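Z., the sequence and structure:
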Amino acid sequence: MKDTSLELSRKFREMLMQKTSEERLLMGGSMFGMSKQCVTSSILRKNLKISFSDLKKEIFLRFYGREFDSYTIGKITRHLAEYGSGHKSGF
C-alpha cells in the first residue's frame, strides 16, 4: 500500500540521505527497538503469565515467522526455549 505522494517520498528520501550512515543506522535500530516493544506489549496483554522462553518464541514468530519453513522455525524455537529457560529479564 502506498499512501504517500511521489513528491513527498522523494523529499523524505532526500532528507534521509542527508544524514550520515551512522545516523541512519541509529534510526533503524531505534525503530526496531520500538517495534519490538510494541510487539512485546501486545503479547503480554494477551497473556501476562507467559514464560520468558515462550515470549521470546512469540516475538520471533511475529517478526520472522513467515521468513522460514516449518522445519527451520521448529529448530529456532527449540533453541529459544533452551536459551530462555532460567532467564527472567532481557525483553
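The helical segments are 6-17, 21-46, 52-64, 70-84. The mean pLDDT is 90.

Let me know what you think.
H.
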